[in-house]
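Researcher: I'd like a structural prediction for the single chain below. Treat it as a standalone chain; there are no partners to consider.
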Amino acid sequence: MTDYDVLRVFCGPGGRCGNELGVVRDGSVMPEADERQMFAGKLGFSETVFVDDPERGIIDIYTPTLRLPFAGHPCVGTAWLLDVPELVTPAGVVGARLDGEFSWIEARPEWVPPRTLRQYGTAAEVDSLAVPTPGEWVYAWAWEDEAAGRVRARAFPGRDDGIAEDEATGAAALLLTHQLGRALNITQGAGSQILTAPQPEGWVEVGGRVFLER
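Model: Treating it as a single chain, here is the predicted structure.
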């Protein structure tokens, strides 16, 4: 069995919740894309990362059924694990930094695959949503406290790969931040926390807590 780490990314206060992430630190043990895709499907995490150069931060990201040029929680988690100032993804170079208990990345909204950002009137409406049938990728959100930038969100990838709801989704949070043009404090899923902040020239920072599960 290939060695891999399991992280929880975007954990809430006290380390609860967070989205699990698999990271294969030595990507050379599985160099072919079809091997990686099969392994990611076997692990069943919303994303699995293969590290092709730990010093330069070159990574390759897979869901259980497809390869991604960029994704938020894999970049936040892998940057924390490798302790590097940047990651190199097929989409572009992702800046990375640590600030106290939070791991941050800086990325661009145009790197994110299409998402439907669907606003609801109240957080309670978001909480009561049923998981939709596979189809479009939906980020359902509502203001908990608009003045404070606090958001309640849930994510439905719309794929038929066993991930009906994503616990914490940095890329969708990045898109929402870009659309609203302001910093956000997002509670997603069962209690994960995502922090975001717009940056100059269209960049967006996304941050959260990361814990090593095993």
